[in-house]
Amino acid sequence: MHSIKSTWTTKMAFDNEIGNHTVRTDTGAPLGDDTGASPKRLLLAGLAGCSGIDIISILDKMRVKLDNLIIDVEADLTDEHPKVYSHIRMTYHFSGTAIKRSKIEKAVDLSQHKYCGVSAMLRKNCPIDYEILIEGEVEG
After folding, report:
1. DSSP-derived pairing of the beta strands 128-138 and 85-100
2. Cα 38 to chain center, whole Å?
3. Which one, 49, 54, 110, 125, has the greatest CB density within 10 A?
4. What is the pLDDT of residue 78?
5. DSSP state for residue 113 in the 8-state scheme
């Protein structure tokens, strides 16, 4: 079981105790003071973090060395309430020396379709598309 504790601090801000960490959520003016991430954007960060952890772990087992991995996530919101994500797009930016696309594609595919629970939950409600960009790619 997972659990958190969320405590209202002021206006629309909440401090969320997540394990040994505190993460603030808030909204912008005029309702809030923008002192923390919006809950919906935090959900996208959870998606990127979940997938990124999977990918780094898988590539480590494949002995693929990266210099960097950056994951950009964009999502479209519906116009009517409740405003939910209708389409999510992820772009994985890999960089390194002599990176084989086949290994990167396998790691991303395993994350997206087997291991990442956040992706699995969100995909039940909206499509998630992704693109892989590799700096330092070699054939194979």
Report:
1. parallel
2. 14
3. 54
4. 97
5. I
